[in-house]
Specification:
The chain is mainly alpha-helical. About 80% of the residues lie in helices and about 0% in strands. The protein has helices at about 1-10, 15-25, 30-45, 50-85, 90-110, 120-130, 135-160, 165-195. The radius of gyration is 17 Å and the shape is globular.
Length: about 200
């Protein structure tokens, strides 16, 4: 994978970063976090500039999630149900994300990038639920900036140890997802309780 990504970056530069992230967010089975960390490693090696790399990554992530949103608007749930399993988007993932979005939609758009499998679905589910584009854009684009900044900067800081990110992600991603879900449910119920009291 590293060889192919390096070749893409050498040939297409920052535009290659945009292309890979658009594909990854739309639903292609690409290891986005590892790719972003590798971009950060290239910044560390001075093959790429930090700010242009960050901007390219944010544009790619925002572009991918916007494309997903409008595809969801146009084709709806049937498209996901028909083609989702071919790119590892199962019916269980769709139903799980749908229920989670109903409870904590804005938070999910903001932080859902950090959850593999969920980030590919949040935009589709937002569109299917008729979530207003302006509100979608505020949370989704802010999330894109936070997510890309986190992993590119992590790769830059780790330098030659950037591969540890992939190792830890594969070992602990399930636990991170469970912790995230529990925290979001707690936040949701706390706010719901406060609103009920008022």
């Amino acid at each position: 994978m590293v060889h192919h990504v390096q070749s893409l970056i050498e040939h297409y530069g920052y535009f290659g970063i945009i292309l890979i992230l658009v594909g990854g967010i739309v639903g292609l089975p690409l290891p986005d976090e590892i790719f972003l960390t590798y971009v950060g490693y290239n910044v560390y090696r001075e093959n790429l500039e930090h700010i242009p790399a960050l901007i390219s990554a944010a544009v790619g992530a925002a572009g991918g999630i916007t494309l997903s949103y409008f595809v969801g608007r146009r084709f709806g749930l049937p498209l996901l149900q028909k083609y989702g399993p071919k790119v590892h988007i199962t019916a269980q993932k769709i139903e799980f994300t749908k229920k989670l979005f109903e409870k904590i939609g804005p938070v999910l758009l903001l932080i859902g990038y950090f959850i593999p499998g969920v980030r590919h679905l949040t935009a589709y589910i937002a569109a299917i639920n008729n979530y207003p584009y302006k509100k979608f854009a505020v949370y989704a684009y802010a999330g894109a900036i936070i997510w890309t900044f986190t992993f590119i900067t992590l790769g830059k800081v780790l330098g030659n140890k950037w591969r540890f990110v992939g190792m830890y992600l594969s070992q602990y991603s399930l636990y991170a997802i469970l912790v995230f879900i529990v925290l979001m449910l707690i936040v949701y119920y706390v706010f719901k309780k406060r609103n009920t009291i008022k």
